[in-house]
Write a structure and sequence with these properties.
The structure holds two protein chains of two kinds. Chain A has 23 helices and two strands. Chain A is mostly helical. By secondary structure, chain B is an alpha+beta fold. Helices cover about 45% and strands about 15% of the residues of chain B. Chain B is globular. The chains are: A mainly alpha, B alpha+beta. At the A-B interface, helix 19 and helix 21 of A face helix 2 and helix 4 of B. Chain B: InterPro entries: GlrX-like_pln_2, Glutaredoxin, Glutaredoxin_subgr, Thioredoxin-like_sf.
Chain lengths: ~525, ~100
């Protein structure tokens, strides 16, 4: 990397700045190696680099007696009183420089593998390196202290981690053995770091390990720029990559979640608006009493209505487009299926909040007026529809009339059953049960009442069943075109009821406020004259 | 186990109910509205009601509640759902007629 830098600088006919050179030199010093050691690795290139460095330093340095010292003085990165004349590079770690280099080492890892390897080699070979491992300790610790976000090669300020100063001091405290430094590293590094863990667990084998690594160097994996990395570094790099990848994936997932939530929110807002337009939320919907099942159903119903409107339009087009019967049959069949879907939704809602369904809060006021057991009354609907379906064959007329009659009987039966339930429930609430005259406590009453209420769900479901069967039977009795007209008529009928609800809610009224001082508010609603609605 | 079948064969139309069951009341109302004279057996008043209920549940395919359960001509027709669907389809009356429970 240094070579590249120097080459680029030289080619641009621009001297590297004093700071740059000093920095590089200091790095070289701080890597705890004799510059000559590095040369052993890349003899040819190293010589070039070194001589170039020396030359350039020579140009810029004021005193050139001790090559090692000068750049450090020149470097001026706040290494106060950094190098005594005889301080070996090892003691660089006493200073802040160690921290700095620790960080930078990490940053350079990808680009300067050579330093790592040669540092290890130097560690085993050179005598005056009492601490063979502090540097890797520091760097590996920093690796775990913080994942590598970007390659900030030339930071304007040394990057510090909370761990390294401690480590550094520990390193110097336990200056003799690599054991202590290993221990410290394991204290500070996370469990992820296999290298540190290895070191911690093989304290007496560190030297062996290093020799092993030295041996392995030639055969280690992960060739980078044609140079080899030692296994520990390889592992660390892989872990960093993995961590970065995982964090990217997490970020992606989070963003996707946000996006889908945004869509859901937009959909819900649209649904609410639609509900208002439909006049469903007028007249004070019981917001406080709305259970989650009810709210869910309300939203689903609104969506169903939207869908229904589209299908009705499609059916209308299909009917007047003079399609082949087969095509129309498919569309009509889809319409029936769509109605089935609503009954399914209602059955679900009945399980969680039967009161919501049976009181018809989910439907428009006008529809609610005609409500029977949580929906439309099938026999009534048939009575309304019959005139719309002309011309019918006699066979069809009989069929529909029979259907109407059967439905009427079934409805009456269900109504009677519900009536009995009401009676039984009210008896329980009143305190005297029909069956059991023993003294029932309040909780006993409640328990009994609850068990009775649970059958309410069954009635709503049976009523929906009647509605569904009615629609299916109509589909069976009628021809395709007749069935198409039938379902359009049903849709339109309920549409009009909903429209009526909206109009009624927004009708013009006059309210007179009486004198407040006398007896509170008094509002007088004027009788609407027939002329008022002529505009409609 | 046979008690259910025995009772079901006694009359043309047999319904098994429970006295506190409102849905059972609905089904019996329907039959009487149609002019059917059905035999009604309340399981909670029968000493062997428990096992009969289990048997009915089994016959209905594990569906709860086991009541009301309608038998026509000794054969199981089904629960409320089935009875209502058959009636709207116009098939219940022919079944009753063929069992002799209804006349024109």
């Amino acid at each position: 990397y240094i070579k590249k830098l120097l080459v680029s600088k030289s080619s641009s006919k621009e001297k590297p700045s004093k700071e740059t050179l000093g920095f590089l030199w200091a790095l070289a010093c701080g890597s705890n190696l004799n510059p000559e050691d590095k040369l052993q690795v890349n003899r040819q290139e190293g010589t070039v680099i070194w001589s170039e460095l020396r030359n350039r330093m020579g140009e810029t340095s004021s005193s050139s007696s001790h090559q090692r010292q000068d750049p450090c003085v020149l470097a001026g990165y706040g290494f106060h009183g950094a190098m005594g004349n005889s301080t070996p590079p090892a003691n660089f770690f006493d200073q802040e420089g160690a921290t700095y280099f620790g960080e930078l080492e990490e940053a350079f890892m990808h680009q300067v593998p050579t330093f790592r390897r040669t540092q290890q080699a130097a560690g085993t070979s050179t005598a005056h390196h009492g601490e063979t491992t502090p540097f890797p300790v520091a760097t590996t610790a920093t690796a775990t202290a913080r994942p590598l976000p970007t390659l900030d090669i030339f930071p304007s300020w040394p990057m510090r981690s909370p761990h390294t100063p401690k480590e550094v001091s520990n390193v110097t405290a336990g200056s003799t053995g690599s054991e202590s430094s290993s221990k410290n590293s394991s204290d500070h590094s996370s469990d992820q770091l296999g290298a540190a863990a290895n070191m911690a667990s093989h304290l007496d084998q560190v030297s062996q390990q290093q020799e092993q690594q030295h041996k392995n160097m030639a055969t280690s994996s992960t060739q980078r720029n044609g140079k080899t990395l030692d296994p520990k570094t390889v592992r660390r790099l892989a872990q960093n990559r993995e961590a970065a990848r995982k964090s990217r994936l997490r970020k992606k997932a989070y963003i996707q979640q946000l996006e889908s939530s945004k869509l859901k929110l937009a959909q819900m807002e649209h649904d609410i608006q639609r509900a208002r337009a439909q006049g469903l939320l007028l007249g004070g919907a019981p917001g406080a009493n709305t259970s989650s099942g009810a709210a869910m159903f309300d939203m689903e119903y609104i969506r169903w209505l939207d869908d229904h409107g589209r299908r009705m339009a499609e059916l209308h087009r299909a009917l007047h487009a003079h399609l082949q019967d087969d095509e129309l049959r498919a569309i009509v069949h889809d319409t029936v299926t769509h109605h089935d879907e609503l009954f399914r939704l209602k059955a679900e809602a009945a399980k969680s909040d039967v009161f919501h369904l049976i009181t018809g809060v989910w439907t428009s006021p006008a529809e609610r007026c005609f409500l029977w057991m949580g929906g439309f009354r099938p026999s009534d609907l048939l009575k309304t529809l019959l005139p719309q379906l002309d011309p019918l064959t006699e066979h069809q007329v009989i069929g529909i009339c029979n259907l109407q009659q059967s439905s009427q009987q079934a409805e009456d039966a269900l109504s009677q059953g519900l009536e009995q339930l009401h009676q039984s429930l009210s008896d329980t609430m009143a305190g005297g049960s029909v069956i059991d005259d023993a003294n029932t406590s309040f909780m006993g009453q409640m328990a009994l009442a609850l068990s009775k209420l649970s059958s309410l769900e069954g009635f709503v479901i049976q009523a929906d069943n009647l509605r569904q069967q009615t629609l299916h039977q109509m589909h069976r009795i009628l021809t395709v075109r007749q069935a198409a007209r039938c379902f359009l008529a049903i849709g339109e009928y309920h549409n009009r009821l909903r429209a009526l609800s909206s109009l009624w809610a927004s009708r013009p009224r006059e309210i007179l406020m009486a004198d407040e001082g006398k007896c509170g508010d008094q509002s007088i609603v004027t009788e609407p004259s027939p002329n008022q609605y002529s505009a409609f | 186990m046979d008690r259910v079948s025995n009772l079901a064969s006694e009359r043309a139309v047999v319904v098994f109910t429970k006295s506190n069951c409102s849905m059972c009341h609905a089904v019996t109302s329907l039959l009487s509205d149609m002019g059917v004279n059905a035999a009604v057996h309340e399981l909670d008043r029968d000493p062997r009601g428990r096992e009969m209920e289990k048997e009915l549940a089994r016959m209905l395919g594990g569906r709860v509640p086991a009541v009301p359960a309608l038998f026509i001509g000794g054969d199981l027709v089904g629960g409320t759902n089935r009875v209502m669907a058959l009636h709207l389809a116009g098939e219940l009356v022919p079944m009753l007629k063929s069992a002799g429970a209804l006349w024109l």
